[in-house]
Amino acid sequence: MVYPTRLVSLAFPSKSRNVGVAGLKPPSTEAEELRRSNLVKLDLSDGQTLYSKLVVGADGSKSNVRQIAGIKTTGWSYPQSAIICTVEHTAENDTAWQRFLPSGPIALLPIGDNFSNIVWTMSPEEASRHKSMSSEDFVMSVNRALDFGYGPHPNSSSLDHYVERLFSDFGGTAASTKECFEVPPRAIGLISERMAFPLSLMHSHDYVSKRLALVGDAAHTVHPLAGQGVNLGFGDAAALAKVISEGVSVGADIGDLSLLNRYENDRKGANVAMAAVLDGFQKMYSVDFGPLNVLRAAAFHGAQYISPLKKNIISYAMGDRKSPLFS
């Protein structure tokens, strides 16, 4: 693994022959042997030089590998920022929580024991204010945003009662209101630095080139409102590992473009589709209009009551390519 800040340049062979090379030792005469051995040359900031059959760019949205390789991207910025940090609870948390607020969603993501990560979307001005407030005030704001101060408690919602009646025909497949909602665990302390960053959608025109593959945020970024960025990255890593493993099993060159294209063809469609869905959600929740607010709430509450639909949505979010509506 090479840390992004250490990489100075990449040199790809302009011509290649399928000549196998054992290990990562540099060839004796650089120009000719680099071409003949089919290796990528990586120059590091400390003067060290590495040679590799395949470079995997997994260095984030501002990928140095992607920029050095000259791979172009398409995307746009959102008028929002996200604050991320880690908080502690009084008891172990094993459930991910999310609440949609007027300024953007807040997510509570368990990381083990009594700790969870916070991803809180808001305007850049609000992000600056929340980042600079005291730790105690920030924790109070987190607890208020998760369960207090934003309208009636879901158990007392008239909308819940209406939706429960509306979907009562589903019988055993429907869940009751009380079964659907629990109170998020309270945060009792901030145990990490608060970081704020602007939100954007970005997608690379290409995931691969000769002896290069991009994965995760280096290839694509999405709005964090559904916490899907990490799942997409895991999907990329699994797909690339599978392609490489299959290539090795038949003696193929792991940096060959025809092999790497199988990874891109497998992942690009799924990632573009998820990015479009999340972008649509972001735009839909950016509109504060009474009737639309009711429809949005009814749709989410309805999904809670129809167990097959709920399971399909969860399956899709975990990487199943099938549409949650038609599978």
Automatic annotation (TrEMBL):
Gene3D superfamilies: D-Amino Acid Oxidase, subunit A, domain 2, FAD/NAD(P)-binding domain. One of its GO terms (cellular component) is mitochondrion. GO terms for biological process: carotene biosynthetic process; ubiquinone biosynthetic process; xanthophyll biosynthetic process. Its cofactor is FAD. It comes from the Eukaryota. Residues 45-144, 192-269 form the FAD-binding domain. Pfam families: FAD_binding_3. GO terms for molecular function: FAD binding; monooxygenase activity; oxidoreductase activity, acting on paired donors, with incorporation or reduction of molecular oxygen. The keyword Flavoprotein applies. This is Coenzyme Q6, monooxygenase. It comes from Aegilops tauschii subsp. strangulata (Goatgrass).
